[in-house]
Design a protein that fits this description.
The protein is an alpha+beta fold. It folds into 2 domains: 36 residues; 97 residues, no CATH class. The protein has 3 helices and 7 strands; from the N terminus they run αβββββαβαβ. It has a 4-stranded mixed beta sheet. A hairpin with a 4-residue loop joins strand 3 and strand 4. It starts with a helix and ends in a 14-residue tail after the last strand.
Length: 140
């Protein structure tokens, strides 16, 4: 006894939809995973972090709020989303502008984005997301 032709087609469509859902899920996980391991590489002065001098620089995790306005707190040496600091006196356009201003004394050049493996390979100081220099530690 043979199956009706439309049932064979329905099975293939279900398999195709299942495959597409799996691909979308994997792409989403990859994007989240990649984003959580991106860091800003900031240097100790207005020149940024020159090649060959990475051991004197800092790797700071890129925030999920990185493109929102950021508050520069010079008293505590931190950069936090402006939404968390309604009393902020110095607001910059995003996380990287805030970090570059705080750590390099000016927003340009901006701190480039690197991977976590770059930071470890070059023995760069690993810091908290707010960029506080007191939070920085050398990778083990």
């Amino acid at each position: 006894m043979s199956r009706p032709l439309f049932l064979c087609g329905a099975k293939k469509i279900i398999e195709l939809i299942s495959c597409l859902i799996l691909v979308l899920l994997l792409m989403t996980l990859q994007t989240v995973y990649a984003g959580s391991h991106s860091y800003y590489l900031c240097g100790p002065d207005e020149d940024g972090c020159p090649p060959g001098q990475e051991q004197y620089c800092m790797c700071i995790p890129v925030s999920v709020n990185a493109e929102q306005p950021y508050c520069l707190d010079l008293d505590n040496m931190t950069c936090k989303p402006a939404a968390e600091r309604p009393d902020c006196g110095i607001i910059l356009k995003n996380q990287v502008s805030c970090l570059a201003t705080m750590l390099q004394s000016e927003p340009n050049p901006p701190c480039p984005t690197v991977t976590q493996s770059f930071c470890h390979k070059h023995s760069v100081y690993m810091c908290d997301e707010d960029g506080n220099p007191n939070s920085c530690k050398k990778p083990v």
